[in-house]
């Protein structure tokens, strides 16, 4: 079963307030959405590939928009945040231990098997304000302006082949799935499909490995029927255990999620967002940790 967290009372209260439902009706809607999400969502699912990690789930009958944020976590990641909270009274000690803290945070960022959690926070109505504010900012600014560290190597992205002309004279184009790891010298794996004047041939798939030295090699291929429900299967390719799809690496960690929340509250404190003196202290240290981690991860680029 997928990992969901629900702000249950708040969501039910908002359903009653925004859709004029009584408590029984609101609970029925909430229970239906929760049960459906938990019973149908794979453990490793991501609802969006946006680096903001925020998403909407629309309930058909009421048109209520359930708002959530996905993150990846482990017991060590949550312990790191709990330790920070407990040491806010000791800034000199935190500063002294910053190197170790950043190292632990980077290990969390680069871990390929963290548990994915979907934090369902509230529900919106159907009016013009029912949008994800951070997502709108990203679109308007035309850049991925997010608080957390997305551990991609820019030089690798810049070198990715978008198309391949094969020896048989066919043209293949890179599609929407990339598998990447955290080794700067490791290979990345891409799905390619053939392109003709009529468009992309959706029945053929190939996985190619692209190494940091430019090596480009087919590792598997398959054909599927014309039915859109048919899915590709690559029987011979043994995907390395440390390689995941890009959408996994874009997910914030638990620490990142908290940083994003506090960053938002600081910016909107004047409009009533809850933001205490302790929150301000914690935000300061989270920013220091994230900034130091970025410098460490990207210093060789």
UniProtKB/TrEMBL annotation:
Lineage: superkingdom: Bacteria
Name of the protein in its database record: Uncharacterized protein
Organism, scientific name: Desulfacinum infernum
Organism ancestry: Bacteria, Pseudomonadati, Thermodesulfobacteriota, Syntrophobacteria, Syntrophobacterales
């Amino acid at each position: 079963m997928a990992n969901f967290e629900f702000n249950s009372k708040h969501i039910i209260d908002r359903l009653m307030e925004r859709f004029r439902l009584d408590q029984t009706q609101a609970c029925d809607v909430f229970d239906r959405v929760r049960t459906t999400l938990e019973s149908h969502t794979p453990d490793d699912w991501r609802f969006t590939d946006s680096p903001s990690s925020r998403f909407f789930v629309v309930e058909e009958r009421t048109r209520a928009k359930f708002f959530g944020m996905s993150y990846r976590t482990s017991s060590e990641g949550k312990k790191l945040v709990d330790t920070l909270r407990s040491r806010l009274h000791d800034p000199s000690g935190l500063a002294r231990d910053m190197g170790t803290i950043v190292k632990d945070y980077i290990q969390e960022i680069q871990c390929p098997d963290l548990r994915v959690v979907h934090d369902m926070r509230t529900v919106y109505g159907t009016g013009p304000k029912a949008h994800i504010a951070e997502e709108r900012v990203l679109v308007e600014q035309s850049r991925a302006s997010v608080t957390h560290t997305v551990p991609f190597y820019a030089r690798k992205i810049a070198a990715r082949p978008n198309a391949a002309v094969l020896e048989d004279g066919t043209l293949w184009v890179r599609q929407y799935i990339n598998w990447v790891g955290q080794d700067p010298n490791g290979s990345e794996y891409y799905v390619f499909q053939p392109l003709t004047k009529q468009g992309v041939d959706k029945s053929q798939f190939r996985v190619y490995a692209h190494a940091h030295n430019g090596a480009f090699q087919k590792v598997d291929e398959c054909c599927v029927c014309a039915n859109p429900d048919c899915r590709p299967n690559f029987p011979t390719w043994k995907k390395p255990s440390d390689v995941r799809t890009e959408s996994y690496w874009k997910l914030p960690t638990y620490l990142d999620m908290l940083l994003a929340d506090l960053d938002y509250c600081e910016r909107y404190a004047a409009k009533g967002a809850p933001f205490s003196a302790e929150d301000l202290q914690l935000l300061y240290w989270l920013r220091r940790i994230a900034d130091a981690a970025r410098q460490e991860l990207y210093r060789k680029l």
